[in-house]
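Ticket #180: bound-state structure for magnesium ion.
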Amino acid sequence: MVIDKIRSHHNNDPIEIIGIILDNGFEVSKGLVYSIDDTTVLKRIPLYCDPIEAVARVNNVVPGFIKYYEVKSDTQIDLYLTRYKGIHPRPNSGITDKQHALKVLDACINFVKKAKPNTHNDFSGGNILLDGEHIHFIDLDQLFNDYKDTISVKEYYFSMNWLHRYMEFTEFEKIWSNHF
Ligand SMILES: Nc1ncnc2c1ncn2[C@@H]1O[C@H](COP(=O)(O)OP(=O)(O)OP(=O)(O)O)[C@@H](O)[C@H]1O
Ligand SMILES: [Mg+2]
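RESOLUTION: The complex was predicted; output attached.
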């Protein structure tokens, strides 16, 4: 079992622990994710739209994120994704200080701008990987599925669970309204 592998691992380095989990694969709410090798993750998700357009939509925002894909059936697709290294920002870890939190927030704002006219509204820690200076956004299912609904500033704030410790909603709203 994966939990035994984690327990018997020789250290607690979060990057190595994430690697063990990914190497074993796990189910996500709508499909599954597992690593193929150090550079590639497979994500199997439901298919609701034209795959060629969907892949282009994602790769236009994050060039090269979907390396290749296989349509498995009318309702399922395997996406072979660039695998990023790093750790997820969490409410009590991953973010070093307010300045760092502001930097990650800025990257989220830029991502929202880049994704337009699509909506990307899930900036929870599990969808972000921090690797030194690099900030990666993963889980681009909304972009893939051509999601365009408008969401409130509050919903954006609530998805950023790693930010709450450093910033109240009122401050967030001010920053957000300077951009949108
Ligand atoms: N491209 C990637 N590079 C590195 N790790 C990844 C990548 N894609 C997914 N992962 C890892 O797998 C986890 C789940 O993937 P993802 O966020 O895409 O699934 P999900 O659709 O959010 O699933 P759920 O809806 O159950 O949360 C991520 O939090 C991350 O740890
Ligand atoms: Mg996710």
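RESOLUTION NOTES: Strands lie at 26-28, 31-37, 40-46, 66-73, 76-82, 128-131, 134-137.
TICKET STATUS: resolved
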